[in-house]
Structures are given as structure tokens and as C-alpha cells.
UniProtKB/TrEMBL annotation:
Cellular localization per UniProt: Cytoplasm
Pathway(s) served: Cofactor biosynthesis; (R)-pantothenate biosynthesis; (R)-pantothenate from (R)-pantoate and beta-alanine: step 1/1
Descriptive protein name: Pantothenate synthetase
Naturally occurring in which organism (per UniProt): Deinococcus aerius
Keyword Methyltransferase in record: no
GO molecular function term, any single one: pantoate-beta-alanine ligase activity
Subunit structure: Homodimer.
Positions annotated to bind (R)-pantoate: Q62, Q154
A biological process term (GO) from this entry: pantothenate biosynthetic process
UniProt enzyme class: ligase
Length: 288
């Protein structure tokens, strides 16, 4: 299948018909309001697959009672433009009743990697993520699925689910796309004014400060974390949820090991918007 005209499908039957005869299928799961970060995922899928499906579904099961489900940004015309320009073949845009029909009663829960950090701050969030992702895998039956590294813990949860449940999908993590300032692209950045986005760059500055402390020989997690906190305290608007260093299994250790999967993660509210970001502790891979 070659990408000529982006086709929108809304039901599983339309989806299967649209993929009839396709070779290697790539899936990019999204909640819409697509930006350059999503486009990078789609382009990667386009380069590696014969057919590319982008799903656009604001999944109510991954939002908490006091979160922003009702005001989460939605713009299907924008999504069609971004997905089409990046090379998608199909845009799967189901409604809630299609994904969760009357009587729906099943949930996927992934232990361990889902429990700390976002799992603590947003109870039930990763159950909702795992459930909808597995449903999408079953509907699309992709060979590869593409996820941004910005949602690092989500990526870890999906990888663990695929491994544990023997799901025949290769999970591809794609590096975070950033604004020129360094701010990680996110659909929720739409809630911020340009001046607020400029100040939100402090989160990535804090992550880089932790990287620099590790490059200087720091291995004690508390001291590495303090290097980032010294940056975050410079702006009183930062309402910190967590800043931490974790290994590939999302475990927080007293000292970091020589593991290239070690990551520094941050979550904070600024101007009423919850933002997350992360970077590898050692940006060049294995520590010296």
C-alpha cells in the first residue's frame, strides 16, 4: 500500500477493509491535536512500513475525575492535515461507543512499571492506557507501533504489556521532539501562552542540570536530583510533582548504575497545566 490520499475510517469494519491487502502495517496511537512530535512518529512509520494507521481517540478511561477530558484540545481538520502531510494512509477515528460498547467490562492492568510516579499521581491512568492500546493492537493488528519517548513511563508500560502478554507487535520508541527553546512538544502546550511556554522551558533545563551533574561524576541519586531542584526553585510558578532518576524498570535507586536506560523524569504544574518531560541520564549512551 502506498500513501496517496489519507482516508478516514470510523469503525472496525472500515478499518479492516482499508487494510485489506496491506503488507507491513505500522500504527501510531494518538489522542489527536497532532503536532510535529506526532508527525515524527508517522514519518518513522512511513519509512519502515507499507501501510501507516494513525488512531485519533481521546480515551476517557485514562483521565481522572478532576482531569481535563472535557477541554482536551480537539481539531480533526488539523489532525488530517498533519497525518496526511507526514504520510499516513488511514486515520482511525472511532467514537467512545465503538471502543467501549454498552456492557463493556474489561480492563488491562500492568503491574510494576505502572505503579510509581504517574501511576501514583494519576490512579487508574495506565490501566486506561494499556486497555485502549491493546484494543487498538487487536483492531489494527500492526507489525510495529510507534510511541514518543516524552511519555517515557507510558512507553515502559506498553513494552511490558506486550512482553508479558505475548502480543506480536514491535514497539518503537521515537525521541522527543522539542521547540527551539527546548520545551518538549505536547498537545497540552496549547493551554499555555507564548510567554508561559518560554517559562516552562525550566523543566528541560532542570533535566539537563541533572545530566551535567552525572557527567561530572555524580552517582548519588539525591545529589543528582538536587542539581535539578536548584533550577526548578528559580521559578515560583513550578508546582513540582516529582523529579527523579529511574532505571529501565522505572525503579528509583539510591545510586545510579552504569545503565544506558537510566532516565531522569520530571512532572510539574505550571500556570495550571500539568507538564511532563524526561531525558536519558547519559545522552550519548553508556556512561564513561
Amino acid at each position: 500500500m502506498t500513501s496517496v490520499t489519507l482516508r478516514v475510517v470510523e469503525t472496525p469494519a472500515e478499518l479492516r477493509q482499508g487494510l485489506s491487502g496491506a503488507g507491513r502495517v505500522g500504527l501510531v496511537p494518538t489522542m489527536g491535536y497532532l503536532h510535529e512530535g506526532h508527525a515524527a512518529l508517522i514519518r518513522r512509520a512511513r519509512a519502515e512500513c507499507d501501510a501507516v494507521v494513525v488512531s485519533v481517540f481521546v480515551n476517557p478511561r485514562q483521565f481522572g475525575a478532576n482531569e481535563d477530558l472535557g477541554r482536551y484540545p480537539r481539531d480533526l481538520e488539523r489532525d488530517l492535515h498533519v497525518a496526511g502531510e507526514a504520510g499516513a494512509d488511514l486515520l482511525f477515528h472511532p467514537d467512545v461507543e465503538t471502543m467501549y460498547p454498552p456492557g463493556y467490562a474489561s480492563t488491562v492492568s500492568v503491574g510494576g512499571v505502572s505503579e510509581p510516579l504517574e501511576g501514583t499521581s494519576r490512579p487508574g491512568h495506565f490501566d486506561g492506557v494499556a486497555t485502549v492500546v491493546l484494543k487498538l493492537f487487536n483492531l489494527v493488528q500492526p507489525h510495529q507501533a510507534y510511541f514518543g519517548e516524552k511519555d517515557w513511563q507510558q512507553l515502559a508500560v506498553v513494552r511490558r504489556m506486550v512482553r508479558d502478554l505475548n502480543v506480536p507487535v514491535e514497539i518503537v520508541g521515537v525521541p522527543t521532539v522539542r521547540e527551539a527553546s527546548g520545551l518538549a512538544l505536547s498537545s497540552r502546550n496549547a493551554y499555555l501562552t507564548p510567554e508561559q511556554r518560554g517559562r516552562a522551558v525550566i523543566l528541560s533545563r532542570a533535566l539537563r542540570a541533572v545530566q551535567e551533574a552525572a557527567a561530572a561524576g555524580g552517582r548519588d541519586t539525591a545529589s543528582l536530583r538536587q542539581a535539578g531542584l536548584n533550577v526548578l526553585t528559580q521559578d515560583p510558578e513550578v508546582d513540582l510533582d516529582y523529579l527523579t532518576v529511574v532505571d529501565g524498570d522505572m525503579h528509583e535507586r539510591g545510586r545510579v548504575e552504569n545503565d544506558p536506560m537510566t532516565r531522569v523524569l520530571v512532572a510539574a504544574r505550571m500556570f495550571g497545566v500539568r507538564l511532563i518531560d524526561n531525558l536519558p541520564l547519559w545522552p550519548e549512551g553508556d556512561p564513561a
